[in-house]
Write a structure and sequence with these properties.
The protein contains 6 helices and 13 strands. The chain is α+β, with helices and mostly antiparallel strands.
């Protein structure tokens, strides 16, 4: 586990309801032209709008400005679009071929998804010619072919991970690269540790744990600032948390796949 300052950051922070601001968007937007590919703001804007309808969200729910680094306070995650045109390459038949790729993915704010759980789509298109000549119109047509395939794949992926994506959009899902965890964060204190963040959809919340609870022992071992990281790691590794404090609770660890089996359409508490 990672300790950032005094905060033991486990995997999920429950964001509060969006606060209306000059940019009340749910998702940050970041488009990346890979390699030597030229940026195309019109293409990026078109992709932003098309992905918004795939989620489905209105385009206003995805910020127009690209955000580098941390998302704004009102945002649950980031929509990232990567696109590229690779140069002409000789083929066995003497012709030349080039290809375009487009990838669309979602990332949690303040962290990253484990690779296996990114809702993403990628598409590729290629064309052949005898001479390495291309125009902006041909470039656009090739990128559009690739993006159409990427968006179809993205829509399928979102459908397959519907409950996971819904939780990202509703609550925020900043994941570190851990396979499983209890989806809560606790801050060391002199008298134990205090629960400061909690996934309202997760196993800890279902076991009765609440923000503000004091944890005095974890796995029957008294919690201190010095040993808390090791105790959390051991609990995650064992697959079971046993805590005592304000509320005694026992609950299983979970990972992103857990949300596929527990859709939030059930009677979960709000974020």
């Amino acid at each position: 586990m990672l300790i950032k300052g005094a905060l033991l950051s486990v995997v999920l922070a429950c964001a509060t309801a969006p606060v209306m601001s000059p940019d009340p968007s749910v998702l940050a937007f970041n488009a990346r032209a890979i390699g030597t590919t030229q940026r195309d703001s019109r293409l990026e804007e078109d992709l932003r709008e098309r992905v918004a309808h795939s989620l489905p969200l209105g385009p206003e729910a995805i910020s127009k400005a690209a955000h580098q680094g941390r998302c704004l306070a009102s945002q649950r995650g980031a929509l990232v679009i990567e696109y590229s045109i690779f140069g002409w390459m000789p083929q066995d038949d003497g012709s030349l071929r080039r290809r375009a790729t487009v990838t669309v993915l979602l990332e949690g704010c303040y962290g990253t998804f484990p690779d296996a759980h990114i809702a993403f789509g990628s598409g590729e298109a290629s064309e052949s010619a005898q001479q390495p000549v291309s125009t902006p119109r041909q470039d656009e047509a090739l990128i559009n072919q690739a993006s159409g395939r990427a968006l179809r794949a993205f829509k399928r992926s979102v459908g397959e991970d519907r409950s996971f994506v819904d939780n990202l959009l509703r609550c925020g899902l900043p994941l570190d690269d851990f396979d499983r965890t209890a989806f809560l964060a606790i801050e060391p204190r002199k008298n134990g540790a205090v629960v400061v963040r909690l996934d309202p959809l997760g196993t800890a919340a279902r076991a009765g744990v609440r923000v503000g609870d004091v944890v005095t022992t974890l796995g029957e071992v008294p919690v201190t600032a010095a040993n808390i990281s090791a105790l959390v790691a051991a609990a995650d590794e064992s697959g079971r948390w046993v805590i005592q404090g304000t509320r005694d609770a026992t609950f299983d660890t979970q990972n992103a796949a857990w949300y596929r089996a527990h859709p939030i359409s059930q009677a979960w508490p709000g974020c």
